[in-house]
Design a protein that fits this description.
The structure holds two protein chains of two kinds.
Chain A lengths: L16 E5 L7 E7 L2 E12 L11 E7 L7 H17 L8 E11 L4 H16 L7 E8 L5 E3 L3 H6 L2 E8 L12 E2 L2 E2 L6 E6 L3 H33 L4
Helix pairs in contact in A: 1-2
Chain B lengths: L15 E2 L4 E4 L9 E2 L3 E4 L2 E4 L3 E6 L3 E5 L12 E9 L3 E5 L6 E4 L19 E8 L7 E3 L11 E2 L4 E4 L2 H8 L5 H9 L3 E4 L4 E5 L3 H13 L5 H15 L2
Parallel strand pairs in B: 3-7
Antiparallel strand pairs in B: 1-6, 2-5, 4-5, 6-7, 8-9, 8-11, 9-10, 11-12, 11-13, 14-16, 15-16
Helix pairs in contact in B: 2-4
The chains are: A alpha+beta, B alpha+beta.
Chain lengths: ~240, ~240
């Protein structure tokens, strides 16, 4: 039994994605990521010398500044900043540039549902544009649970309000490898099936949560493929001279 | 589940890689010394990419990821353009667009002794060579080449400095000479200094020559050889009216 979504998508279908990098002049890396109508701009400055107080000087430090579209900065924005900081810290290689600070600034251009995953994707693209060393990319997706138990991916704002629970999930990207298959495993599962961050709202059962994770993982693979293709195309456009 | 790659690619050399791609498997290559350049890091037996770019290989054993960014990662024996931000009794603090400020010892000049220490004001542009880069320490610079001669290093007077990406600097420094520089050099006379950290200095007798050269260089990043020549011709035509 399929659910009817207002814009005619199937439950597992994502909205149209668009990503462009190196769009701002002053930051060292910048990217804009849009999923349907939700659009987020990310800018990266750094690495710059010196860490903040109370931060480990043997590792690189990250700071995230979240700027909402309208209104003052409040608890919601601070929470997003903390989630993003922890996500970025786990995907970046912290030992390469010790005692430096990298700032990531997120500007919400339009919010139409699935805002935090869109912001995480934009920040990841901006970090790649700035050349910050990373272990792998982070691919984020929002999965929500409808009343009749179905999992719906990438909701827009109206759908998010109607759902009983939703989860933002962040996975590592699918990587190309010259290793023979099956060797990049950790505890019997390929690295891509791991999970970096998970934020949930509402009430859902454990089985439903695992169902969300499964569906999200499959969608993450198509998001990584999009990112890789987007990057390859921009490389091709800019290196015709080579 | 998902889209697993059914046959792992045998080699990713000269292909675009994104962070996380495993590019080399060390368990197959025993008894070989491999040199890893920028953008690669070692995770036990697998070498994976840290940055997104093209994987390059030169014989006998050098691998690196080529990418162009606005910031610079200091490497020894690179010639860069730095700006003095502070001067202390032993060192000058120089900004080279890297993660840390770099140190230029006060005696690292040809014939430098305690009696003839150069006085650089804050904001002086210097053409320097990177000597040492250790993780966690500030990079060290020198105004002499490896044998102690000046070889063109030192302060750059007059002229105009602008910032570009590291990829453009590498292209302008490549040999044989870049087409845009050849085409400009046939008609105009000017002096340039390119730093591998993305800074370019241009000097000429007339300001309009400086402006033409600077604009031509800034536009040539994404153009192919013939496109660069056409662009330079159009610029020069407009000017000589």
């Amino acid at each position: 039994m399929e659910i009817d979504r207002e814009d005619g998508r199937t439950p597992n279908q994502l909205r149209p994605l668009a990503c462009s990098r190196n769009i701002l002049h002053r930051p060292h890396g910048s990217a804009s990521w849009s999923q349907g109508d939700t659009k987020v701009l990310a800018a990266v400055y750094g690495p710059k010398a010196g860490t903040k107080k109370n931060e480990n000087a043997e590792k690189a430090c990250f700071e995230v500044i979240w700027k909402p579209k309208t209104g003052q900065i409040g608890k919601v924005e601070k929470e997003y900043e903390m989630i993003m900081k922890r996500t970025i810290q786990s995907i970046c290689v912290l030992t390469v540039n010790p005692n430096t600070t990298t700032s990531v600034i997120i500007q919400v251009v339009h919010d139409d549902g699935s805002l935090l995953p869109c912001a995480i994707n934009a920040a990841c693209a901006a970090l790649v544009d700035a050349g910050i060393p990373m272990k792998h990319l982070a691919v984020a997706i929002c999965c929500c649970l409808a009343d009749n138990g179905y999992v719906v991916l990438d909701p827009n704002k109206l759908e998010e309000k109607k759902m009983s629970a939703f989860a933002y999930l962040v996975f590592p990207n699918t990587t190309l490898s010259v290793l023979p298959e099956g060797s990049s495993v950790a505890d019997g599962e390929p690295v891509e099936h791991g999970i970096i961050t998970s934020v949930t709202h509402g009430v859902m059962s454990v089985d439903d949560y695992f169902l969300c994770v499964e569906n999200g993982c499959a969608a993450a693979a198509s998001l990584s493929a999009f990112f890789r293709k987007n990057f390859q195309q921009s490389q091709r456009d800019s290196s015709k001279a080579g | 589940m998902g889209t697993e790659v059914s046959t792992s690619p045998t080699s990713l050399i000269d292909q675009t890689v994104v962070p996380g791609d495993v590019v080399l498997d060390l368990s197959n290559m025993t008894n070989q010394t491999i040199k890893l350049g920028s953008g690669l890091f070692q995770d036990n037996d697998a070498i994976s990419a840290m940055r997104a770019g093209k994987l390059r290989y030169t014989k006998p054993n050098k691998y690196w990821v080529e990418s162009s960014h606005k910031r610079y990662i200091p490497r020894p024996e690179d010639a860069v353009l730095g700006i003095v931000v502070d001067s202390k009794s032993d060192n000058f603090w120089v900004d080279i667009k890297g993660p840390q400020l770099a140190l230029l010892p006060v005696l690292a000049f040809e014939g430098g002794t305690r009696r003839n220490i150069p006085k650089f004001e804050v904001g002086t542009l210097l053409y320097v060579r990177v000597v040492k880069t250790n993780t966690g320490m500030n990079p060290e610079l020198s105004c002499t080449d490896a044998s102690g001669k000046a070889a063109g290093f030192g302060p750059l007077k007059d002229g105009f400095m602008f910032e570009t990406s590291t990829g453009l600097s590498r292209m302008l420094l490549s040999s044989p000479t870049c087409p845009v520089l050849e085409a400009l050099g046939k008609k105009l006379s000017f002096e340039t200094a390119f730093g591998l950290n993305g800074r370019v200095w241009v000097h000429a007798a007339a300001p309009r020559v400086v402006i033409i050269v600077a604009n031509a260089l800034m536009n040539s990043e994404t153009l192919s050889g013939t496109q660069q020549r056409i662009m330079v011709e159009k610029l020069l035509e407009k000017i000589s009216e």
